[in-house]
Amino acid sequence: MKRHNIQLNEAGELHHFLDVEGLKRELLVNILDAAESFTSVKAQQVKKVPLLRGKAIVNLFFEPSTRTRNTFELAAKRLSADTLNVNISTSATSKGETLLDMLNNLEAMHCDMFVVRHAQSGAAHFIAQHVAPHISVINAGDGSHAHPTQAMLDMFTIRRHKGAFADLKVAIVGDILHSRVARSQIHALTTLGVTEVRVIGPKTLIPDDTASLGVHIYHDIWEGLRDVDVVIMLRLQKERMSGALLPSEHEYFKLYGLSPEKLAIAKPDAIVMHPGPINRGVEISSEVADGPQSVILEQVSNGIAVRMAVMSILMGQTFGKEKGASE
Amino acid sequence: MKRHNIQLNEAGELHHFLDVEGLKRELLVNILDAAESFTSVKAQQVKKVPLLRGKAIVNLFFEPSTRTRNTFELAAKRLSADTLNVNISTSATSKGETLLDMLNNLEAMHCDMFVVRHAQSGAAHFIAQHVAPHISVINAGDGSHAHPTQAMLDMFTIRRHKGAFADLKVAIVGDILHSRVARSQIHALTTLGVTEVRVIGPKTLIPDDTASLGVHIYHDIWEGLRDVDVVIMLRLQKERMSGALLPSEHEYFKLYGLSPEKLAIAKPDAIVMHPGPINRGVEISSEVADGPQSVILEQVSNGIAVRMAVMSILMGQTFGKEKGASE
Amino acid sequence: MKRHNIQLNEAGELHHFLDVEGLKRELLVNILDAAESFTSVKAQQVKKVPLLRGKAIVNLFFEPSTRTRNTFELAAKRLSADTLNVNISTSATSKGETLLDMLNNLEAMHCDMFVVRHAQSGAAHFIAQHVAPHISVINAGDGSHAHPTQAMLDMFTIRRHKGAFADLKVAIVGDILHSRVARSQIHALTTLGVTEVRVIGPKTLIPDDTASLGVHIYHDIWEGLRDVDVVIMLRLQKERMSGALLPSEHEYFKLYGLSPEKLAIAKPDAIVMHPGPINRGVEISSEVADGPQSVILEQVSNGIAVRMAVMSILMGQTFGKEKGASE
């Protein structure tokens, strides 16, 4: 599909990172391997590498975010890039400038990468379709569509704990319908060869076409968690609670919240993941979130290495390789 | 006039950059030449030079701006300076501190340069009159008075396309009355020796004393654009439309908006400029803005090099020259 | 008391800097000496040292502040650290995340230091009690409790002007009751061996237990200022004026505002200090604030060196010493 080719340059290398869907396993493994090389950076005395020195990376956040923006900014700084935070609400778009004019202007300032978060699905693709050829775009979350760097840091965390993907059983629990994270995770897990991906949630929160993604659907969490190696809890957007889609928070926790009892259904060495920020007592109990099987904070930590990996791959600058050098 | 001498140090070198008016041609040419030396920086592998390493540059924006603030911040970072964005609305002035006390405090923190934007004409001059001798001030736009770095990046763009200034015919079209950009452009063009500067606009938007600046006034754009080499369109502040000064947007475009038909009156190789952000269909048609004669995005791009040039000249740090070294 | 030990590591070295109270004189002198070594940095051509290169320092300001945040940010940049400004109001806490979850996430991003300002007394202690062992916390002001870096820059300024502390008479004038600055100053002054610390203010603004801190209380400023070497004026929070605690601003200035006449009671070479921002004509007259005995702007300037000192001591990185190198 043409929609995905936009992520690759003519040599088949990643130029944008918009969506896990449609990318080959090899490219995903490349990201995980590059991230592995960066985990040593954080341990060394000075946590910086000069790979992206002189590059200008623009954070274009049309939707508020602390965690994601901070990890992208820290990742960029550790690669020695210059960062620019563009506050959209105070930008010239409020003077009637179109989004494309704003992008063209940022391009003309010789920026090298846009990290985009937007409430609308497809926004990062739209931007990637319109930027100049030398600019790379990273999708940092668009509507309920995709959040590929989150999915890749989750894959990185799983690989660190479980090694090979092939024999794993992974369950994703919660509001699949509205979750860009779940969508990207499903594509990443299946591409990386996970045998069995399960999604667990109430009927109102699982889209009708979910089965076509090659996953197994469970509405009963006690059944769905049986023998899984990895439990991925999704954040429950509290603003959905007011509608007809969900019962009360208390009721939701009783049915789908991860308690020690429910976790006991999974394999004894199962790991528990969550993209954060967590709603304690809604989708996950504090006992589990802070317990020995939780790797939630490791995910945040791995987010830096994975984003450093994606940024340097897009810029063609990874350890021991330099895009263009041999071209 | 003493008001302009404040920009120069005792050696006659630029110490502040507040206004093009009153500066000698040689100083303006110096800025253009220094900017030329920085255009190679953006092309090289690493876009940074260490000229201002350890200098602290404060963005003091009392008026919102994305484009101008971003280009100053990027220019400073490419010179390896540290930047500080002072958010005026949350600053201590809201605790009843005076502006001068705030400036004194920033000085005491050993900041080296203030980049000032303010809604009031004269604000940057006022600040320059009161800062400590080691601090340089750049006017990034004050009221309807001056915007000298914008004018210089326009001159740089013209020189790159047209070479010598002497034989050019340049037209500035639109709301001259409220435009700090136009005022600075007129001074820069006449100082650099442009033969014929024309201003074009409705009577209500051209100040009475404009002719005294040595320009030709046209109210009929079809007449004013005849045979010009450069067309500079001004942004129409939409908030002026509500008053009695202007007809409707549609009417304005019909009379003064730059359409392909009107542009055909100019020389065939005329370039079209605009300081941005543009109002498509108000002062300029999309066909012209995105057309082959438009250099609007080049202007943005040149803005980085010109601001790097101004910053390093004020700090006495240009390639091959170091202020104080020989004194 | 255990409450203070939290600031020290097992080797008795500073690990957090939360409060002057309970710290030994030697540790305070260490900070002053380190700050002395940094005052040369600001004078040298390039004002940067690479001591904290690769460290990530997070500004966590729950309360607005320009001056303090700017000096911490500049100090961090001059030490070559990366800085991250976390805007609390837009952070995930607004999505229902707890403060501790937010801190844990920042920790997981491998941040090294939190600079915390909070309206509630004890907030920085609370955070220090809960962060991971590798993270240092600096209290940049918590409620009416403590503001230790402000107190230390004041001590540094006094030492530069007066040399030894032992024989000094120091007066602190104003709203002692609500002042975190005063509280930290009193502890610093007495720890450093100042003979006579006086506090001067109306009964309503001096807490009942003040005498137990080893200071002398004066309600008559004409008496309290007699023969002092140092006069420290406190900022009057104008929002207190509306209550019953204070008369009008005009009345306050007449009684406790520092005028040239009142200053004449002090020693002829007494210095005048103020943490800023100043209320001209309320707690201090412009004549005094801008006069020859005022060292108010020197305080701001010294704030950079003192904060660089504290940051590098906490990170175990001072000139000629490297924590962990010999361990």
The 3D shape of chain A can be described as globular
**CATH topology description of the largest domain in chain A:** Rossmann fold
Q: Overall mean pLDDT score of chain A?
A: 89
> How many distinct beta strands of chain A?
11
Instruction: Provide the helix percentage of chain A.
Output: 25-40%
Helices and strands, with pairings:
The structure is a homotrimer of 327-residue chains.
Chain A: H1 2-5, H2 25-43, E1 56-61, H3 67-78, E2 82-87, H4 99-108, E3 113-118, H5 123-130, E4 136-142, H6 148-162, E5 169-173, H7 180-191, E6 196-200, E7 216-218, H8 221-224, E8 230-233, H9 249-256, H10 260-263, E9 271-273, H11 286-289, H12 296-314, E10 317-318, E11 321-322
Parallel strand pairs in A: 1-2, 1-3, 3-4, 5-6, 5-8, 6-7, 8-9
Antiparallel strand pairs in A: 10-11
Helix pairs in contact in A: 2-6, 2-12, 3-12, 6-7, 6-12
Q: How would you characterize the overall build of this protein?
A:
The structure is a homotrimer of 327-residue chains. With 327 residues, chain A is of the alpha/beta class. The first copy, chain A, has two domains: 2-146 and 301-322, Aspartate/ornithine carbamoyltransferase (Rossmann fold, 3-Layer(aba) Sandwich), CATH 3.40.50; 148-297, 3-Layer(aba) Sandwich (Rossmann fold). In chain A, 36% of the residues lie in helices and 15% in strands. Chain A has helices at residues 2-5, 25-43, 67-78, 99-108, 123-130, 148-162, 180-191, 221-224, 249-256, 260-263, 286-289, 296-314; strands at residues 56-61, 82-87, 113-118, 136-142, 169-173, 196-200, 216-218, 230-233, 271-273, 317-318, 321-322. In chain A, the strands form three sheets. In chain A, strands 7-6-5-8-9 form a five-stranded parallel sheet. In chain A, strands 2-1-3-4 form a four-stranded parallel sheet, sandwiched between helices. In chain A, strands 10-11 form a two-stranded antiparallel ribbon. In chain A, strand 1, helix 3 (67-78) and strand 2 form a beta-alpha-beta unit. In chain A, helix 2 (25-43) crosses helix 6 (148-162), helix 3 crosses helix 12 (296-314) and helix 6 (148-162) crosses helix 12. The first copy, chain A, is globular. The model of chain A is unreliable at 322-327 (pLDDT under 50).
